Amino acid sequence: MLSGASLLRAISTPDRVFREGSWSPGHVLGAGYDLRLADDLLVIPTEPGASGYKTVDAGTPPVGEFTLAPGDSALISTIERFSMDFDVAAVIGPKFRWSARGLLILQGTTVHPGYGREKVDGHWRPVGGEGEPLYFVIANVGPGPITMRKGDPIAYLQVIGIEPPQQRTAVSNVGFEFLRDRLFRTGVDGTGQGGLAYFRSVKDLERAVDAESARRDRDWEQLRRQVDAEVAEVKRQVTEAQTTIDRVNNTSNMIVVFGIYLIAVTMLGVVLTTLVNLIGDLPEKLSQDRLVLVTGLVTVYAVSTVVATAVVSFFARSAIRRRS
């Protein structure tokens, strides 16, 4: 494994590890090199949390940063362009700074000798004259959004010196277009549906659960309002029934009191008539006494009538007050 001066010498040699001009000396760290996030050759969500994806390549404006909501996935690439000589290989490891935030990074573990090179006219040269970046498939499996910016360290590269193979062959590479079309199914307009199936399914399931929960909350609120309205209507009907019953009771009480009054007056009238007839049969010499007796009976009758009238009026007023 190369480190220190030998690592820097290997990286600094044009087209031995990186395409000249695509790497930065400031990212040599210990026994390795920090690979940086590019702002092109990306497939990212059209918006955080959206189900659609957009492609960022040479034909579209670069993207300085993007955000992945929980459940989102993306295809990213490195600023560094590889043109591996046949006497070196490399191993790749993810940066824990991203794992600690819930970012899952999927990549190959090895960069083979000859990666990023092609044979042209009998000579091994950088692919397309520019070399080949490394590609990573990432997914946010954490609890919150994750924002990534151009130049962020995304992986750690360690270079290993090896014996050159006797037969040199080009390294098979599926490339950006294959990964884009296979995992994200983008269309001719650069947008599409897809993403890593598992994480997309989890995200869709979460959306379905949230939608069902919201629907149940709305239904529960509607049911609660309906029950409250029905309870209020029952209370109103009970109040009206109680008022009607009170009115009937008050009327009945008045009729009973008035009936008692009539019976009492009738009985007093009968008694008075009987006494007057009895007094009329008394001897003439008792005429003065008879007059006094008749006067007393009339007085008693009058007082009884007045008292009975007062009692009826009292109960009538009480019934009216209770009804109101």
UniProtKB/TrEMBL annotation:
GO molecular function terms here? dCTP deaminase activity
Q: Which Pfam families match?
A: DCD
Q: Which residues form a coiled coil?
A: 224-251
Provide this UniProt record's keywords sorted from A to Z. Answer: Coiled coil, Hydrolase, Membrane, Nucleotide metabolism, Transmembrane, Transmembrane helix
Specify whether Hydrolase is a keyword of the entry: yes
Q: Give the highest taxon in the source lineage.
A: Bacteria
State the Gene Ontology BP annotations.
Answer: dUTP biosynthetic process
Kindly list the residue ranges recorded as spanning the membrane.
255-279, 291-316
Report the protein name in the record.
Deoxycytidine triphosphate deaminase
